[in-house]
Amino acid sequence: MKTDSDQRIAEKILQVADLENKQVLEIGCGDGRITSLMVGKPKQLTAIEPDAEKIREARKKVSGADFRIGSGENLKFPDKCFDLVIFTLSLHHQNSKLAIREAGRVVKDSCNILIIEPVNEGEVERIFAFLRNEDQATLEVQKSISESGLNLEHSEVFHAKWIFENKQDLYQSLFEYYDMSFDADTVLQISDLMGAKLDTCPIVLQDIMIIQSLKKY
């Protein structure tokens, strides 16, 4: 399996936000894949993730960022200390209303919160939903954004690709991604959704995401 998702996310972040000479906080950095593509651009890049094992991996693989264990729902930082806060595909994994409120607390006045989220209608998202359905959580994110009291300055849908050699590679990659055992019923559901496309080689799936920039006044 190959994907340009991380690269596309990093490209969009750099297009929408100015990181130069900024104090930046990334929330939900995972093992640092996207963090690594931003290193060297901000004055200081702090990245947090609640999973301690992923933070250990990030520290081993990526230099130039301050990796810490932490949650977006309870940020261990003082008020107004960052020039930019970025949620990289992480806001729907937590209480989005609380996390946006916390981000608004730690970002400076007249500065931005950047949110990257999956779009439920994407091919990748529709297939992944058979293993772990996050549709409601992503809808809650949009509700939290609209109710945040922050100004939505920019909203843009963009795309990435996931490429699988064949259907065996697709199934193996999906179950490994979620660390789940192979399930025949799930495979049947995916087969019904994909139809003839499942027999193409390679299988190219469209990943749809949205990037939104909120400004705090």
Automatic annotation (TrEMBL):
Q: Which UniProt keywords apply?
A: Methyltransferase, Transferase
Q: Which residues form a coiled coil?
A: none
Question: Plastid among the record's keywords?
Answer: no
Which molecular function terms from Gene Ontology are attached?
rRNA (adenine-N6,N6-)-dimethyltransferase activity
Q: Which CDD domains match?
A: AdoMet_MTases
Family annotation (InterPro entries): Methyltransf_11, Methyltransf_Superfamily, rRNA_Ade_Mease_Trfase_CS, SAM-dependent_MTases_sf
Superkingdom to which the source organism belongs: Bacteria
Locate the Methyltransferase type domain: which residues?
A: 25-110
**Mind telling me what this protein is named?**
SAM-dependent DNA methylase
**Protein species of origin:** Desulfonema magnum
